[in-house]
Design goal:
Blueprint (H helix, E strand, L loop, with lengths): L15 E2 L2 E2 L1 H25 L13 H34 L6 H26 L10 H16 L13 E3 L3 E3 L2 H25 L2 H4 L1 H14 L9 H8 L8 H12 L5 H35 L24 H14 L8 H31 L2 H6 L2 H43 L2 H48 L1 H6 L3 H53 L5 H15 L5 H22 L21 E8 L8 E8 L4 E5 L6 H8 L11 E4 L2 E2 L5 H6 L1 E4 L10 H6 L7 H10 L3 H5 L18 H15 L3 E5 L7 H15 L3 E5 L11 E6 L2 E6 L1 H7 L2 H14 L10
Parallel strand pairs: 7-12, 7-13, 10-11, 11-12
Antiparallel strand pairs: 1-2, 3-4, 5-6, 5-8, 8-9, 13-14
Helix pairs in contact: 1-3, 1-4, 2-3, 2-5, 4-5, 7-8, 10-11, 10-12, 10-14, 10-18, 12-14, 14-15, 14-19, 15-17, 15-19, 17-18, 23-25
Amino acid sequence: MSLTYCTQDDSISTSWQNGGLSHCFFSTLMPSLIAAWLLLSGITHIRSGRRKLSKSMWNGYVLRRFARYFMAQRVICVLMVLLRFLDLVLKSSLHPMRVSGSTILSDGLLIGSWVFTAYLLKFELERLTPRVNRHCVATLGFFALVTIRDCLAFLGWNNPSWFWIGVEGRGGRETASQDVADLVVFCFDLIGCCVSLIMAVASPAFRGRKSVQLRMDMLCMNKDGDDDVEGGGEEIRGLSNKSTFRNLWTKCKQLAPYLWPKKHCWLQLAVIFCVACLAVGRVANLFVPIYYREIVNSLTPLIGINGSQQVPEHGRYQKVSFPWKSVLIYVALRCLQGGGGGSMSVISNLRVSAWTPVQQYTSRSIQVDLLRHLHGLSLRWHLSRKTGEVLRIVDRGTNSVNNLLNYILFNILPTVVDIAVAVVYFGIEFDIYFALIVLTTMLLYLLFTFIVTEMRTKFRRNMNEMDNESRQKAVDSLLNFETVKYYGAEEYEVNRFKVSVLAYQVAERKSIFSLVGLNCGQNVIITCGLLAGGLLCAHRVSEGIYEVGDFVLFISYIIQLYQPLNFFGTYYRMIQQAFVDMENMFDLLKENQEVKDESDCKQLQLSHKQIEFDNVSFSYVPSTAVLRNISFVVNPGETLALVGPSGAGKSTIIRLLFRFYDLPSSGGRIFVDGQDIATVTQKSLRKLIGVVPQDTVLFNADIQYNIRYGRVDASDEEVEEAARAADIHDRILSFAEGYKTVVGERGLKLSGGEKQRVAIARTVLKTPEIVLLDEATSALDTHTERNIQASFTRVCANRTTIMVAHRLSTIIHADQILVLKDGHIVERGRHDKLLALDGLYASMWQEQLQAAEDIPLPQQSEG
């Protein structure tokens, strides 16, 4: 028997025959198009291929991340080649009549295409550069085309020459062994094509192109002999463009305690009620179109045998049954479902009411835990933080959790469930064709939305950057308007702002046009799916297989299903942003608490109020020591003064005693009444210590609140008595609002001396057992300083006191004076003894006396 190009009852000239797609036509057209595309684009890519990198540059990161990935893809190509050979063998052995010229051409072109693709993958691996680190258009297009080819094969479902010998009725099929073999080969081919496309889209080069480029730039920089670039590794790790969905399970576990209120039964019932509302909503979405169909079928007049509608008599159409039950059920379901996006539905309103307390619990728990954690971080972290950035992280992180729950739980999940229910329902109630139309349309819609949204991200980011730049230039020029006028640069500033606005508008146009393209593409996909399903359903109605209500059901169900998909791109982008914000918040929660109480810490028991530093050494950074082997004892009730030049370590001693920092294991120990402060709780230690800092920061509240902060349960009389002790009571009464005067942000409405006296009053109100004065009178004038010295004497009476002083006149009464320089104690003793030594302290004393006497007088001009 001679070999024919097309099998019997098949033709290459006819694309649609026997109720399905022509096998001969399809086997000729699609493989030819795929092979032509791959050949032209592949040769073009090879001819324009870049210089091959030397093997010395392919070390570590590139080999681990790319070599195994490309090898896996090439293995799939080999398996697909073997599968095409298996297809030929099975057809020739099981059903020689099916072996035709079109079959050999199809398998031959596909075998050659897969072999050529394997070569292209090898070519790409060898020629990855910092600028070219992804699949070429040839390989990407090939993987997409072969996948589309297999999906289009479902159009030939009813063709007898495809996989099945015959079709009996609606859904019934008789298959033979050769048909089963063909179907198995086709299924494996479809799986292989889909896996290849997914691997190509989700390749390491696409998921981390910025990280890849940076790492390969480092390889290129190091090839000349420098094996390391200082700071480069950290910079690369910080700039790596990792996926926002990485470590998703870890993030969900961190988020779980805030989502499920363990100790609140009513909130748990609210969560269960919300889930039940979602389930009821899905049922309503399913049955609304069904009862709509029942109403239409009930109200549709009967069709005669000859296909014509019965003629109405006496001006009235034929009577039909009154479907009042269906109408009542339909209206009830529509009431539950709501109109539009469901915003007016009973279910959605009930769900919002029940979810609000749960959302508030989540938001409250996260904010409280974050603030508690931030207050528990060490002074080192707080000195290096950016307050605005931290507050933005807290705000965005809290909002991101609520947004993430709303988007996923109440928007994404219901839509996905509706799609799954629709596919199953159409597959059972109608047939597999409708299920495939719905599924294919939905998958193409979601895939297109995700890809284009990812592409639009860079346009949106660029637009935001241009907007920030234009606003910064405008604000900067207005803040410096005097300088602008001094130099007559008004037109120059206007032109700078105009250029930045034009750049912003260019980025804005790109963002808007990409959004238009996204909406148009979504509309095309939805329209094609609706057209395919509508034509098929209308054809079945015209053939008498379905009723008119079935067409109404299909159209209304599909339109109902498509409505929430319009916001999928927005949901995807917002979920990405929420994951980023939530990740920043969790990174903040992961900040290590440098100073924390161990599990066996005990309360500080204070009796004698003795302080001892035993061979203390400390440094803020490992390379620079601030304190070196500091040892001293302050007996109960004594006053110790610390003096020395700036940077000698005076304030560090105060911070270590207050336990703002913990000493390293080899850095000595600090004792209070013989108890190592590292072994007692921070709260018990700090409760007994009062501090007057050099730089006083007040709350943006009234003066009474700021003084009462020393002891929040103090009465108004005690607050006023503390103010008198700090010599500020009369000054406060001179204000219009007295003690209710608001001091402003950080106390900026008060002068430096007033702020410091408020801090002194606050410490007096605390009545501590140990007093630390860190240059407490540095912002006071001489007159005020003398007035409060007596107050300090009363406050420090019978209390152990450590003073850090710049003015030596304030410490002449101290029981012991330590002179520090470069972290060492160079002199120690009382005032008279240190003057007699004629050392560093004596020279500092003489300098201050000379500065007080040398008051420069203004010179008179001649003439």
